[in-house]
Specification:
alpha/beta, 16 helices, binds flavin-adenine dinucleotide, globular, 5-stranded parallel beta sheet, 7-stranded mixed beta sheet, FAD/NAD(P)-binding domain
């Protein structure tokens, strides 16, 4: 693509790549700048002895709804295909195990009412409110009429805990209904009910894995990027914004010494990485930096990666077990949890190139970067860091066997990743979902002190791959305006054309 505006996108995770495709679709000349050697951020998989493991992206909601619409517009429908996945909860404090049905959010609500009959009324009201919030959020349907995406919803102003208090629910039921907080990383005592519901709804309604995980997205992105003439530069970072006039940046300096002209700059990276780049003399830059530094981070994870030996004649389908050690998510989702933990255990089935099918198990436990203290230099060789990793791995293996006693003698560990490992995927913080969300805190979505600079990625609006894609769509819709947005949908969405 030549001749259009010169657009730079920093970061090549789900946020940066989806923005790049959408912006190129509008005729812009797009260059993506990625500081790592490989694109993909937390979409990336890694391989041990030829076996694939997921780093950040394991499962998603949204298939059958807005995710299908977005994949169609991005041209990724053929590349990204869902595979069935089921979900269970284990509340370790009380020993309760709950299998969630796969037939949609109403089926989940009915199952929970049957599980906790004395609290059926509160559970019903919880789900009614969650569904209403999503129905009122225009960005859950790309064809929706334009309006503020989060449109003055009063549920922005109450916390999840306030609503659960109002419903007088027991700690067990609160933990079940709040369990999706492990997928946005903000504690129920501070997270807006509306924000929680937007993440939670998709996971209760239709949980799925993607065949070949993040690789499927990346293959699809690569192919579309080639077709649209998007340039991808890896292993370089922007080191300075140059030619700042009228609060606009017209040129950037890269770490390899090259200079690139730019009409627009999209930052699909952590807001702190943006703050580091804004020159102090830029009006508003200092304030942005202070605000960013003040915002606490969402949780990160310590991940255990391994394989489960199959049992002959026994079917063990792919599933998520959410292991929650204490019926108090606030303890789990704030630093200093003192042993309280939430763990996502994902059993997946992978087909290897030689045709073998194998069961992988990834267990990711809430963790905070401060616990994996980084000594200077190469921390990976530091004995204290290695001892920390070994201790966490053993703890996780114990919890896995608590959830799956039948795995005794069948588990093989392949690797582990700490919050410091995730810092390499999403520098500089390594948190799983960007800054924590608080009632009435400024979301800062899209806004930067630069007139031609925009903030995207999972730190901008909603985390998770689904939320990150929705944020990119919303940002592009605002930038290009309604007529161009309608034209884009007309061109790309079958259901709009017909
Ligand atoms: C352990 C774990 C499990 C998770 N599980 C799930 C899940 O099952 N489902 C789900 O939907 N979400 C999950 N998430 C969250 C999800 O991965 C993220 O919300 C989403 O992938 C974020 O996409 P992004 O593009 O905003 O950021 P990223 O994927 O982090 O991409 C940011 C990219 O920007 C690059 N970058 C950073 N700074 C610069 C710079 N200055 N210059 C150039 N490039 C830069 C980084 O190298 C990276 O490639 C999980 C996260 C973690 C850590």
């Amino acid at each position: 693509m030549t001749g259009g505006a010169s657009t730079l996108v920093l970061g090549s995770g789900a946020g940066g790549l989806s923005l790049a495709l959408l912006l190129a679709e509008t005729g812009r000349r797009v260059t993506v700048i990625e500081c790592q050697d490989h694109p993909g951020g937390l979409l990336q998989r890694f391989y041990r002895h030829g076996i694939p493991f997921d780093t950040g992206f394991h499962f998603t909601g949204g298939f059958g709804g807005v995710l299908n619409q977005m994949l169609e517009v991005l041209g990724l429908s053929a590349a990204v295909r869902e595979t069935p996945f089921r979900s269970r909860l284990l509340l370790a404090e009380t020993g309760r195990r709950i299998a969630l049905p796969t037939g949609g959010i109403d089926a989940v609500g009915a199952a929970l009412e049957a599980e906790f009959p004395a609290e059926a009324d509160g559970i019903r009201r919880y789900f009614e409110r969650e569904k209403a919030i999503v129905q009122r959020t225009p960005m859950f349907d790309l064809r929706s009429a334009p309006s503020d995406p989060l449109a003055f919803d009063e549920n922005e102003f109450i916390t999840l805990d306030q609503w659960l208090d109002h419903l007088r629910l027991s700690p067990e039921v609160r933990t079940v209904l709040g369990s999706a907080a492990l997928c946005h990383g903000s504690a129920p005592c501070e997270v807006p009910l509306a924000f929680h519901s937007r993440v939670s709804h998709g996971l209760f309604d239709h949980l799925a894995r993607v065949e070949h995980g993040g690789d499927a997205f990346l293959e699809g992105f690569r192919e579309r990027a080639r077709e649209l003439g998007i340039e991808l530069r890896t292993g370089v970072r922007v080191t300075r914004l140059l030619e700042l006039r009228d609060r606009r940046c017209h040129r950037v300096l890269l770490s390899d010494g090259a200079e690139l002209p730019c009409d627009e700059l999209y930052f699909a990276v952590h807001p702190r990485a943006v703050a580091e780049l804004l020159p102090p003399e830029l009006p508003g830059a200092r304030r942005f930096r202070e605000q960013t530094a003040d915002r606490e981070e969402s949780c990160s994870f310590f991940s255990w990666f391994g394989v489960v030996e199959p049992r002959s004649g026994v079917e063990e389908p792919p599933e998520l077990t959410s292991y929650i050690s204490h019926c108090n998510l606030n303890r789990i989702l704030r630093p200093g949890a003192g042993g309280a933990t939430g763990i996502g255990m994902v059993r997946a089935e992978e087909q290897l190139p030689d045709g073998r099918r194998i069961h992988t198990l990834t267990a990711f436990a809430t963790a905070f970067a401060a616990e994996a203290i980084a000594p200077g230099g190469d921390y990976r060789r530091d004995p204290a860091y290695r001892a920390y990793k070994e201790r966490r791995c053993r703890e996780l293996e114990q919890r896995i066997l608590e959830a799956y006693p039948e795995y005794a003698g069948r588990l093989t560990r392949f690797d582990a990743a700490s919050p410091l490992t995730f810092r390499r995927y999403d520098p500089p913080s390594g948190c799983a979902y960007g800054p924590r969300r608080r009632v009435q805190a400024d979301r800062g979505f899209g806004r930067l002190p630069l007139r031609n600079g925009y903030l995207a990625g999972h730190g901008a609006l909603i985390p998770g791959v689904l939320g990150t894609l929705m944020s990119s769509f919303l940002l592009v819709r605002r930038i290009i305006g309604e007529p161009a947005w309608r034209q884009l949908l007309q061109r790309k969405l079958k259901e709009v054309r017909s």
